[in-house]
Recover the amino acids of this structure.
């Protein structure tokens, strides 16, 4: 009955003469209701998995953890979004406004991380089929002029692209862009970061999954642990605040280092971001490798005094302060507590394909129409159609493992 009344109310609002003035409120109302539906769907889905896998997850989700910390971002959504979209191109059928574009600059990488690609490697897109600098800037400008205010550069490894400094300079000069970020493995970052900062790079995420060099070499199939640590320290010295450190947590590999990572935040403006292990083609995903958010948080809560931070409604992470620490700790819970209801992210892959969901197999090429000579209006039509097809949420974790999706090296971090 409540759902029926909600739908009826939305229908009346859409048909009223004041629809334009209430647009943001209606969209927010839709997102909140889709969130409630997604929660119910997730709970019913959780118990539909294979018996042994279900037990592994359920035991961690229902363990002895304080209700103060075992929350979702839903509790902090009272205010609703205040953005005024420039273009309907970025609003999906569930009212979500997408203001964050992740651009993969290359599929090439100087590491071979096990959760990112299979041991035999992957077939890379020919260089002639990868977006050029001018093509990236043109598409980025189209998104920014339509309402995107944050761009994150990813890969592969974005710092190995030869024109990275010039590309950052051109992107940072786009009118309306507030944040230019980068996710990097940190291998070559230390030497390049001073120039990148001059070129407008104002936020950096550095991937590091272990504090033990031997483990690093095992996971990445390469050496370079000391260079990543050096890049983190360089970012701190250059005034990046926070310096975000991404850590994918995998059972049997690094879950015993969680509290050691937290200690890095004691006297430095570092935000440690613990990420649940996610399934992609070739990374030999197994639910038994997954360390759920609840378990990670329980480990941290037993050793440190933690306090939940009020999150923005589009935030992917659950963020916490640590008593007496300068930095913070976050958890990205894509598997056990998805954040689809507030999703504001879109992805442009290195080969020019446009992807509206990290876990969705659906892609549409922007490179081909771009190179065929279409104008910006036609490109906007293609983008808008793809955004409108975006689903309310991605599949549950057991279905994700069975859903064809490209290796992470192709999609971009």
């Amino acid at each position: 009955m409540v759902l029926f009344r909600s739908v009826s109310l939305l229908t009346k609002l859409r048909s009223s003469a004041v629809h334009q003035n209430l647009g943001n409120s209606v969209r927010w109302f839709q997102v909140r209701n889709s969130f409630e539906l997604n929660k119910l769907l997730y709970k019913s889905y959780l118990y539909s998995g294979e018996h042994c896998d279900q037990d592994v997850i359920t035991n961690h989700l229902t363990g002895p953890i304080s209700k103060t910390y075992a929350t979702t971002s839903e509790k902090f959504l009272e205010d609703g979004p205040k953005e005024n979209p420039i273009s309907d191109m970025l609003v999906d059928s569930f009212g979500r406004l997408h203001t964050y574009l992740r651009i993969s600059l290359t599929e090439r990488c100087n590491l071979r991380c096990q959760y990112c690609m299979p041991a035999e490697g992957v077939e890379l897109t020919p260089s002639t089929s990868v977006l050029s600098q001018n093509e990236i800037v043109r598409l980025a400008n189209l998104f920014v002029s339509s309402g995107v205010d944050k761009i994150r550069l990813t890969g592969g490894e974005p710092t190995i692209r030869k024109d990275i400094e010039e590309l950052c300079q051109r992107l940072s000069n786009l009118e309306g862009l507030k944040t230019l970020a980068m996710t990097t493995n940190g291998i070559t970052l230390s030497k390049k970061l001073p120039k990148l900062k001059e070129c407008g790079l104002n936020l950096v995420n550095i991937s590091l999954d272990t504090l033990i060099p031997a483990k690093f070499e095992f996971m990445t199939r390469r050496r370079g642990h000391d260079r990543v640590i050096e890049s983190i320290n360089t970012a701190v010295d250059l005034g990046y605040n926070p310096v975000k450190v991404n850590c994918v947590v995998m059972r049997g590999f690094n879950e015993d280092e969680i509290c050691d990572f937290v200690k890095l935040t004691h006297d430095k403006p570092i935000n440690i971001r613990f990420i649940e292990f996610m399934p992609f083609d070739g990374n030999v995903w197994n639910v038994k490798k997954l360390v759920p958010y609840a378990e990670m948080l329980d480990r941290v809560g037993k050793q440190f005094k933690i306090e939940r931070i009020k999150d923005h409604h589009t935030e992917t992470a659950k963020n916490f302060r640590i008593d007496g620490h300068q930095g913070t700790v976050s958890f990205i819970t894509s598997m056990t507590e998805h954040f689809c209801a507030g999703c504001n992210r879109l992805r442009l892959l290195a080969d020019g394909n446009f992807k509206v969901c990290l876990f969705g197999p659906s892609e549409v090429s922007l490179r081909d129409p771009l190179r065929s000579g279409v104008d910006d209006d036609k490109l906007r039509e293609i983008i808008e159609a793809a955004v409108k097809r975006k689903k309310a949420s991605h599949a549950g974790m057991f279905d994700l493992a069975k859903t064809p999706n490209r290796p992470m090296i192709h999609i971009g971090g």
User: Anything to note?
Assistant: Confidence is low (pLDDT under 50) at residues 1-85, 395-401.
